[in-house]
């Protein structure tokens, strides 16, 4: 079994460390040759995941061909903005019928399509074994081997089973799903609500407000996902409500921390300029809000995060707008 991790940020390092405890032939692709050399020598990324030792037998390479060819399983975990380009670059070396896993959480710019859809298109004629992996999984905890659960989803049942077998361990419980779109929309859109959660904590709004935000956040994530082909029930699972809870409440979350900074008055540019780590929720908001507007999908929290990011509302104004909206019924079917 030859497994390769494409992306050496926090998530890639956590996953390859987990997989290295279960498999012998494991590779980590790091795009920067100097960084790859440092990782080879120190077996640790001080920048992305300090305190996690990459096992000695993990092959670390900056050569994409070496990281791709002959691999039975390729896991993509770059920031979402790089996934399409990365798959395009890998395509000439991807083995026929290899299983390709998308562990990045985001959507395609412009179209808002799921990353698995883009990957499938780029690998047409080479493989259709495309799987999404998503769940409440902070790299900091997976890297330390703390217990967790996740979901692997695919239209191809055998591909999902294959990835389930590869990842499953007494430390990581892996569930299967056939709703790849639902799993991906949950993973991508929860980052918007996590930013909002950071904003609300930054304003000191309390636990009742947090519970309301998570619950109403789930409702709008589900509305969007279902409108684009996901199954409603998937959002009540690990990749939906599970990931939403952890990202809205964990101090590990980059999106949550970005929200805290927005509430403190920092701009999106100041926040992203101050960290090398990806804050996916900003990009996902830029993609989702115009789509929600275009297709008439009510997403009030997403709308306020968009306005906050664009300096159109302050955090306090965003709160006021959300609290003073027209009266609604909870299930969205408004009674006369
Ligand atoms: N960190 C976490 O706990 C989890 C992250 N994810 C997702 O995984 C993806 C990656 O996240 P992290 O590893 O945390 O990010 P990170 O910010 O820790 O690291 C990003 C890595 O991608 C590389 N990179 C940046 N731009 C690139 C490009 N254009 N082409 C190729 N490589 C590029 C960087 O050099 C770095 O190695 C994101 O979509 C994130 O939402 C999913 C689950 C958990
Ligand atoms: O997706 C994640 C946890 O499941 C990571 O979230 P952040 O990108 O906000 O850190």
From TrEMBL:
Taxonomic source organism: Allisonella histaminiformans
GO molecular function, one term: NAD binding
Enzyme Commission number(s): 1.1.1.94
Keywords associated with the record: Cytoplasm, Lipid biosynthesis, Lipid metabolism, NAD, NADP, Nucleotide-binding, Oxidoreductase, Phospholipid biosynthesis, Phospholipid metabolism
Main location: cytoplasm
UniProt-recorded name of the protein: Glycerol-3-phosphate dehydrogenase [NAD(P)+]
InterPro entries assigned: 6-PGluconate_DH-like_C_sf, 6PGD_dom2, G3P_DH_NAD-dep, G3P_DH_NAD-dep_C, G3P_DH_NAD-dep_N, NAD(P)-bd_dom_sf
Active-site residues, record numbering mapped to chain: 190
Binding-site positions, sn-glycerol 3-phosphate: 105, 135, 190, 243, 253-255
Lineage, highest ranks first: Bacteria, Bacillati, Bacillota, Negativicutes, Veillonellales
Positions with a binding annotation for substrate: 105, 254-255
Binding site for NADPH: 11, 31, 48, 105, 139, 254, 278, 280
Binding site for NAD(+): 7-12, 139, 254
Keyword presence, Lipoprotein: no
Family matches, as PANTHER family: GLYCEROL-3-PHOSPHATE DEHYDROGENASE (PTHR11728), GLYCEROL-3-PHOSPHATE DEHYDROGENASE [NAD(+)] 2, CHLOROPLASTIC (PTHR11728:SF1)
General function of this protein: Catalyzes the reduction of the glycolytic intermediate dihydroxyacetone phosphate (DHAP) to sn-glycerol 3-phosphate (G3P), the key precursor for phospholipid synthesis.
Domain Glycerol-3-phosphate dehydrogenase NAD-dependent N-terminal: 2-159
Enzyme class (EC, first level): oxidoreductase
Substrates-to-products reaction catalysed: sn-glycerol 3-phosphate + NADP(+) = dihydroxyacetone phosphate + NADPH + H(+); sn-glycerol 3-phosphate + NAD(+) = dihydroxyacetone phosphate + NADH + H(+)
Pathway membership: Membrane lipid metabolism; glycerophospholipid metabolism
Family as reported in the entry's similarity comment: Belongs to the NAD-dependent glycerol-3-phosphate dehydrogenase family.
SUPFAM superfamilies: 6-phosphogluconate dehydrogenase C-terminal domain-like, NAD(P)-binding Rossmann-fold domains
Ranges of residues in domain Glycerol-3-phosphate dehydrogenase NAD-dependent C-terminal: 179-319
Biological process, per Gene Ontology: carbohydrate metabolic process; glycerol-3-phosphate biosynthetic process; glycerol-3-phosphate catabolic process; glycerophospholipid metabolic process; phospholipid biosynthetic process
Subcellular location: Cytoplasm
GO-annotated cellular components: cytosol
